[in-house]
Structures are given as structure tokens and as C-alpha cells.
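Minutes, project check-in
Item: structure for the 316-residue chain
Input as provided by the requester:
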Amino acid sequence: MGGLSIWHWLIVGAGVLIVFGGKNKISDIMGDVAKGINSFKKGLAEEEQKPEGPHPSDPPTRTIDLGGTVTGNRSISRGDIDILRLLAAVEILESDLWEQYNELGGIQDSEEQSGSGNGPNTAALQNLDGDMPQYIHDNTDDEFSHESFINAFLVSIGAHPVNLDRFRTLPGSQAAGANKAKKRLTNLMQLTVDTSYWTRYRDPNHNPDLDPAFAFPQAVPGLAAGKFPAIPRTDSDTTNATHIQAIANTAVFHFGSIEQGWDESLPGVGAKSHPSGRLADPSQHRPDRNNAFADLARQGGQHTSPYRSDEQSCLP
């Protein structure tokens, strides 16, 4: 009825192909179709195997050049960010304990305003070293600056800074000079102090680097066996001169233990960071601490008399 339908034209076209193109043309056409289907399937498989890209909420990564400036958007890994966050958390903990030491035995000024000082405790510390209040103040200021620097760097690369305020639940000292209402992260009133650091490099027959399994003796065995205050807990701790001196001695041995712990752990942490994202070897920014550690070991070793076996009743 009138013109040809679509089916007529399809039949005519097929006939033309057979007559003029032959079976090879049909095979070529079908082969091209098969190749196209295979390529499509391969593309789908590759898409499924591709690693998932960064989530929009993930912090961007940056490259740090030798001058310490941000130059790109690739190189600081998730692992490096985790290391930086760990270091920030440790610095916050150190800031907390040094602030407590500074409130009761350091220098309170515009830089370190918390607390108002404790005369008997400060005098006992100065029996060990006349510059001890300045040393405590400067360490406190250092720790707060380290904490601020690492957190600021984390923010600069789009990572989250570390905040431990929700863990501030411990009560602090109630002695005169302390910030009595402030909750703490660390407890300086029940310390067990490892004083073997003082003997490790004084043994003529053993070396901690060559004999890692050797158990070096404690310089003050009593400090490793109990729990002692390194700051006065209340004003009653400051009324007996021998007792407050024992507290000050505990603090000084703890100072050395803190620094020795850092010196041993930082090189290992630094070695795990990616070279292209490393600002500096974290163990190299504390040469002053190495010198201070040596001084503290000397001071502590010279002032252990309140811990003699015949004076155990004088232990805090």
C-alpha cells in the first residue's frame, strides 16, 4: 500500500551486502562489534580496579621543600600526618607536666602565668642547682611552643590539630602556689621513676647500645619500686625540710628520665617519616635537651641522700 516498509529496506540492504560485500565484510562488521563489546567490558573492569580517590573530607597532602615552604599537593602521606599528630599529643602531655613543675618551682611571668610559686619547694630545687627555676620555666615554655608549632603545621597542610582537653580529668596539687582548680593530664604526685638511665653509661662492662638485653641497676632503687610525689601535694608536704628535699630530688630524677626518653624515641620516630615530607630530623631540634640531660643526671646523682636505706622514713 504505497511505499515500502522499513522491513523491506532492511532485507534489500542485507541482500546488497551479500552480493557486493561478500561474507568477509559481514565477518569484519561482526568482528568490530565484538571488539567494541570487549573494550567496553575491559574499561568497566579497569574502573573497578582503580584505587578510590581521596574523600572530600580527607586533608590534602603537600610537598615540603628544603626551605620549609609548601610547594605542591602530593608527598606528605597519611602515615606522616599520623606521626605529626602523635608528636603533638606527646608535646601536650609534656606541656602539662612541666606547667605543674613551673607553678610550684619555676618562674611565673608573662610567658608562663599559671600558678604563683611555692617557696619551700623552690628552695629545695635550688639546693640541687641555683638555676633550677629558670631551667623549669624554659622547659615549660619550650613544650608549649613545640605543641603550638606542630599543631599549626598540621593546620597548614589541611590536617586536624590535636586537642586533649577532654582528657583533663586528674586533680592537681593543692599546695600553695598551684593552680588548684585546673584539671591535669598527668599525675606528678604518684610517680614511679626509672633511674637506670643514670647508670647506663657508667658501667665499664656493659653498654646499652651493645647489650640491649642487660638490665642496668637503678640509681635509686626505691623510686622504681613505689609511687612518690615530685611536687608537694598539700602544704603539709612542705613543713619538713628533709621531706620536701626528697620531693625535689624525685622531680630532678624525673626531669632526666623525661629527656632520656625523648632522646631514645625521637630518632626512631623520625626514621619512619617520608624523606620528602620531613621538615627536619625531630631528634636534632633538642640539642639543648641533651646537655640538660647530662646536667640533670649529674645533679641527681650527687643528691640522693634522702633515699639512703637508713632514711626510708624520709621518703615522700
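Outcome recorded: The radius of gyration is 34 Å.
No further action items on this chain.
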